[in-house]
Amino acid sequence: MPNPKDTPNPYGHPVYKDWAKQSPEERVKGLMKAHGTAADEPRFSDLLYHPTEGSLPVDLVSVTKTSPTTASAIFTFKIPAYYTNGWLNMHGAAQTLIYDNLTTLALAPISKPGFWMLGGVSRVLDVKFLRPAGVGEKVTVEVEVVHVGRAAASLRGVMKDGKGRVLSTCEHDKSNIDPEVAKL
To answer: Measured between alpha carbons, how far is 84 from 21 in angstroms, rounded to an integer?
Structure first.
């Protein structure tokens, strides 16, 4: 995979067209829809956004830009068997994948060219598992941008079951990979 900093126009994907004019919801939904569409081969995480048999179609409930550098979002989904372990509970690796993707989407409302539009790369992804969630169970994931600067971001997530009980928590630290924007 090429380094975005070596790409002539890393923002050339159609999802970034009129980015500044898009609402936070339009940005997040656009990224969810575009995920994996440019790849020659499907990726594991594509199943989060593109419904197929056994996939985990994630629905956006709400997204809010709370300040110029903070935002939050809420997502829901039902756990398919594909993402479970031998006891038909959601696998820890699946939860980690979900947190990696959904916390990153929380950056979209505050991003702009040179500032988190490409979502960055993970430095630390710490997930604490508190209780199991079974196949077919509806789950809510609340994510937020706790702090973001030019080079690093701190994100947080909480996964809850249908009764509002916390299933797991996540702390996600990222590094920005956006190339600097040329100044005229």
So the answer is: 39
